[in-house]
Amino acid sequence: MQILYFNELESTQTKLKELIRSNELQPPVAVVCDIQNAGIGSRGNSWQGLSGNLFLSFAIPLKTLPNDLKIESASIYFSYLLKEVLSEHESKVWMKWPNDFYRDDKKIGGMITNVLKDHLVCGVGLNMLHAPEGFDVLDIEISRERLLEAYFIKLEKMISWKQVFSNYELEFRKNQNFTTHVNSLRISLENAELQSDGSIVINGERLYSLR
Q1: pTM score > 0.85 for this model?
Q2: Inter-CA distances, 90 with 121, 138, 139, 140, Å
Q3: Domains in the chain: ranges and CATH
């Protein structure tokens, strides 16, 4: 994975997409910055922060993804692999469906995914040192470079969706006291039933992450 580092950007995802569209870069490739001023979060929200946090976007050719991974559940897949890396370094962070990283009951980060040309683009924000009011920070000390190295090594293995899902399924019960957003509605996850493709069923309606 080629990694480009920048001091300050409005958005790592915007920058990465610009470089791909202009054919200056070819995936697999990643963009990282120290300070992000207008990062893209879920539902059009921004994800901003100070130096010391993780601001990352990376792109992978769709043809290299596991054959059993539905694109609608890509955010679960890539989020959970990052969560596993954190766990391997003794973090207790858990993943709220479909793409948010939590420490106890407070969010510390998240991931969004979308498709550009023949590539999957993933954007990650993680509070490693600083957090705004109402949020929290990572519960372990690890350098950004060490975390990225471990994460990209894991990504290169392209572990099957079935294997990743079997691990995530055990953790899903932690969602019961939380909510998720569907369009503009906030919906309780108390009675959500996780399906084998990463979707959930609530009140008979099947929902995909689509983030």
Answers
A1: yes
A2: 28, 11, 9, 7
A3: 2-174 (3.30.930.10)
